[in-house]
């Protein structure tokens, strides 16, 4: 494994680093934007079906832990596949966003714990 991948796993949710490619980024005065696309690999649970890549879902934006005083926004594009024989659209079932928030699950859990100590 290379150094940059090891560092990314420390800074970002491992799910993103393992199953998504970073396509671009921008760093502004107070924010960091990281753009991800789901890798083209077909879901393991669907290996018995004949799937072909079929574009992406609408991009979602999720707030993650701040880095060096900058807000971090993850822009995520999930992939769709088409089951060739049945024409059924197939997708992975990702649990990237904490329910009722626009933050990653890890960041939402951190804020919840932090609130318990301050409240």
Characterise the protein shown here.
With 119 residues, this protein is an alpha+beta fold. The chain has one domain (3-118). The chain is built from 3 helices and 7 strands. The strands form 2 sheets. Strands 1-2-5-4 form a 4-stranded mixed β-sheet. A hairpin with a 4-residue loop joins strand 6 (79-83) and strand 7.
Estimated helix fraction: 10-25%
Based on secondary structure, the structural category is alpha+beta
Low-confidence stretches: none
Number of domains: 1
* First-to-last CA distance: 42 Å
Q: Summarize model confidence as the mean pLDDT.
A: 79
What is the beta-strand fraction?
35-45%
Number of helices: 3
Largest sheet: 4 strands, mixed
Q: What is the H/E string?
A: HHEEEEEEEH
Radius of gyration based on Cα positions: 16 Å
Number of strands: 7
- Give the overall shape, derived from the CA principal axes: elongated
Largest sheet, spatial ordering of strands: 1-2-5-4
Write the layout of secondary structure elements.
Elements: H1 3-11, H2 14-19, E1 20-27, E2 31-38, E3 51-56, E4 60-67, E5 70-77, E6 79-83, E7 88-90, H3 105-118
Parallel strand pairs: 2-5
Antiparallel strand pairs: 1-2, 3-6, 4-5, 6-7
Brief sketch in words of this structure:
The protein has helices at 3-11, 14-19, 105-118; strands at residues 20-27, 31-38, 51-56, 60-67, 70-77, 79-83, 88-90. It is α+β, with helices and mostly antiparallel strands.
Key features of this structure:
alpha+beta, 3 helices, 119 residues, three-stranded antiparallel sheet, 24% helix, four-stranded mixed sheet
């Amino acid at each position: 494994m290379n150094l940059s991948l090891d560092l990314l796993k420390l800074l970002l949710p491992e799910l993103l680093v393992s199953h998504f490619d970073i396509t671009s980024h921008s760093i502004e005065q107070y924010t960091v934007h990281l753009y991800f696309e789901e890798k083209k690999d077909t879901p393991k649970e669907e290996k018995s079906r004949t799937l072909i890549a079929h574009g992406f879902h609408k991009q979602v934006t999720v707030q993650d832990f701040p880095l060096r005083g900058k807000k971090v926004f993850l822009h995520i594009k999930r992939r769709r596949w088409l089951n060739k024989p049945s024409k059924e659209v197939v997708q992975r079932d990702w649990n990237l966003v904490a329910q009722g928030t626009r933050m990653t699950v890890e960041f939402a859990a951190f804020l919840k714990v932090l609130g318990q100590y301050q409240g």
